[in-house]
Amino acid sequence: MKIVCIGGGPAGLYFGLLMKMRNPAHDVTVVERNKPYDTFGWGVVFSDATMDNMRRWDPVTADEIQEAFNHWDDIELLFKGRTIRSGGHGFVGIGRKKLLNILQARCEQLGVKLVFEVDAESDAAYPDADLVIASDGINSRIRTKYQDVFKPNIVTRPNRYIWLGTHKVFDAFTFDFRRTEHGWFQAHIYKFDDETSTFIVECPEHVWLAHGLDQADQAQSIAFCERLFAENLGGHQLMTNARHLRGSAWLNFQRVVCDQWWLKNEHGSHVVLMGDAVHTAHFAIGSGTKLALEDAIDLTALFVEHGDTVDKIPAVLTEYQAKRSIETLRLQNAAWNAMEWFEVCGERYCDQLEPEQFMYSMLTRSQRISHENLRLRDATWLGGYEDWFARKAGAPVVGKAPPPMFTPYTVRGVTLKNRVMVSPMAQYSAQDGVVGDYHLVHLGARAMGGAGLVMVEMTAPSPDGRITPGCPGLWNDTQQAAFAHIVDWVHANSDAKIGIQLGHAGGKASTNAPWEGAGIDKPLAQGNWPIIAASEQQYLEGVSDTARAMTRADMDRVKAEFVAAAQRAAAAGFDWLEFHCAHGYLFSGFISPLVNHRTDEYGGSLENRLRYPLEMFAALRAVWPQDKPISVRISASDWVEGGITASDAVAIAKAFKAAGADMIDCSSGQVSKKEKITFGRMFQTPFADRVRQEAGIPTIAVGAISEADHVNSIISAGRADLCAVARPHLANPAWTLTEAARIGYTPIAWPQQYRSAKPQLEANYARAQAQASAK
């Protein structure tokens, strides 16, 4: 094949040499606009895993890189006058120029033709090429030329950064955070040879502008950074090798994602994007070079597998895109999480978190590193952090500290034994609103299963507030007595607390249980009751019954019903009350502009839309015992354009905090069937994190939290204070006890009737873990 690589970065050079090495008959040319052995930029990083992959494909190049690279395991944080270090992270650092020089020399050794000082503007310049590799960088001209085919999605991020170097050599990947009168700056620092380190300075746009850096030239910007980080630099200067850039050299990161990765041009040549031309990954996790090198490896591997002849190119490129797009998306998502962490840390974490927790939050920012993964990397550091966390939480520490999920948590006069909450989950099994033996078994089993707090499903204060005829209620003495029986049983047979969630179905009322009639959200075949909402509403267009807009009289009636229900809940002995303002039910409908179209004082602005929910909360707080907490469940995002956003959620949380709420339970969605939710593990936790830090109120995280590792990571990083676990508790009432055994936390207490099973379960998990480690 005749192969032309346009762009002499890591992707183009490495692909060229790998293909030439495997088949010397290939005619391979790499075209680069810069001079021979010249490049811009400082050091680059990639992981030990990438280095191992390179060694399998070309040991000669890998050995040369290994001789030149700097390897380190430690990450060091400089923050608020403290220095904290954690090890076991495994990075490789090498100068970009040195890396390219090694690849260039290897290309020449293998017979790859290197053409320098040629600015290839188009693939059309090489009409006889069978395969054109467009590795021409983030501003790829070839991608732009065929943008209707490649469909690039390019997002410019808000933070500003400047890529500098220094002759001070750092022995760890160092993060240095500095506060100024206008906000926070951070530096990402790592050495890449024996005498030079990369020094990237980053800050939010508004901080950059406030310091007048938009008016500064490169020399003035460097002088500013030297003053800011003088304590760390210790007299060393900062340097730039970006004199070719105009202005100050402060940049905005651009995230690039392409729908299509290859095409066949008018000359019959196959053109494929590679490296930064097709995808970028933020420097916060250092994966840009990794992605480029592994693009080259995977494309080469597919030619080896399918055959490296011209007729195989379409099949190879099709599989290449399918394979690499998945891996790239995984890394880009991790890089996106890390990037966003650095973009918001000044507002969300730097002032709010103590250095120990800030370090944990920073280490787990990409969500690729979990609690137990940190233990594998540096058990000593994590053990010390767990000890710190446990003591802050007031847990008695004798010997080894408990994992964070098993530390106590106190709200008002209620202390939970751990951070696990059985989420309120609709069971649709009450009779005339009265809970029975089913609910006793359901809630009692989960109370005995180890959770700190067990929540009753959404309970209506009136018959017309139920979602279905099978939903529980709390509007009469019979219902109160039935609940009191369950509460008394839980208190007598476990050390769990039990709470009740009060809510009104609003426009989603008078529907079937999921397994009955036409199914969930569909109107009852018979026996429907009139339904009310913030505004006239039909939840399922053309299907649902139409709810009428509430009048002031309706509001007063519903408020009185909620107050009576809260008083009954207190009399029944519940420890905790949650006010349901999520999922498109009545009070969520008032808050969301997708449902609330009122023109009176209860519609329009967010302040107005919150007016009735806040009136209701104030009434509940007035009658609920002052030594017992009230949480508020909100939909922190409607996942629909024009609906509630995460920014709105912060404002909503602040309003409820001011009214006396103790916690915000951060769920999302279920307000509109037009929602487009991005699912994934712990997918709603970012809402709890943002609300907790920006609104300054404790939060409950919920949504796809299914392992102890998830809970420990969320609680340790301060992303939430409690974790509500739903479906895993349906599958296993003793989920909390089971997860304790699985992670080897044996001090947890079991119900005395079940204790004989405890050592066996713990031994089984320990044996399985030992066998897995031995493989």
Question: Can you offer a commentary on this structure?
Answer:
This protein has 775 residues and is α/β, with parallel strands linked by helices. Strands 5, 6, 10, 11, 12, 13, 14 and 15 form an 8-stranded mixed β-sheet that branches. The chain is globular and about 90 Å long.
Distance between the termini: 42 Å
Task: Report the mean per-residue pLDDT as an integer.
Answer: 94
How would you describe the shape? globular
What would you report as the Rg, rounded to the nearest angstrom? 30 Å
Unreliable segments of 5+ consecutive residues: none
The portion of residues assigned to helices is 25-40%
How many H/I helical runs?
Answer: 26
Amount of beta strand: 15-25%
Number of strand segments: 29
Structural class by secondary-structure content: alpha/beta
Largest sheet: 8 strands, mixed
Condensed summary:
The chain is an alpha/beta fold. The two termini are 42 Å apart.
Layout of SSEs?
Layout: E1 2-6, H1 10-22, E2 27-31, E3 43-47, H2 48-57, H3 59-68, E4 70-72, E5 75-79, E6 82-86, E7 91-95, H4 96-110, E8 113-115, E9 131-134, H5 141-145, H6 147-150, E10 152-166, E11 173-180, E12 183-191, E13 197-203, H7 205-210, H8 218-228, H9 230-233, E14 238-239, E15 251-258, E16 262-264, E17 270-273, H10 288-306, H11 313-348, H12 355-363, H13 371-377, H14 379-392, E18 409-411, E19 414-416, E20 420-422, H15 437-448, E21 453-459, H16 477-493, E22 497-502, E23 532-533, E24 548-549, H17 552-572, E25 576-581, H18 586-591, H19 606-609, H20 611-623, E26 630-635, H21 646-659, E27 663-667, H22 685-695, E28 699-702, H23 708-716, E29 722-725, H24 727-731, H25 735-742, H26 758-774
Parallel strand pairs: 1-2, 1-9, 2-8, 5-11, 9-17, 20-21, 20-29, 21-22, 22-25, 23-24, 25-26, 26-27, 27-28, 28-29
Antiparallel strand pairs: 3-7, 4-7, 5-6, 10-13, 10-14, 10-15, 11-12, 12-13, 16-17, 18-19
